[in-house]
Design brief:
By secondary structure, the protein is α+β, with helices and mostly antiparallel strands. It has one helix and five strands, in the order βββββα.
Length: 91
């Protein structure tokens, strides 16, 4: 039986302490004006990716789609916000 080598994580591969932990399908709201998306527009996460920097692709209710969004441009809404608040309270 061969041993599997485990690599230590890269020094820069640490998630930011205040980044959003969203999943595909989560509901969000824009908190800044984006191209074609007014502040307060509802949307849904259609792609969540990133290793060190979690970023999201969101389809907004007005049909606009934007990528590379994070906590600086979107906020969780509805059940997503409640789930994240509950998880934060446990920490």
């Amino acid at each position: 039986m061969e041993l599997v080598t485990f690599w230590k994580p890269h020094a820069l591969a640490k998630p930011h302490a205040d980044q959003l932990e969203l999943s595909m399908g989560d509901h969000v709201t824009s908190i800044i004006e984006l191209d074609g998306v007014p502040v307060g527009t509802a949307g849904r996460v259609i792609l969540a990716n990133g290793f060190n920097w979690q970023r999201y692709r969101v389809l907004f209710s007005n049909g606009a789609e934007h990528g590379d969004l994070d906590r600086r441009s979107i906020a969780p809404a509805g059940k997503t916000a409640k789930r994240l608040a509950k998880a934060a309270a446990k920490r």
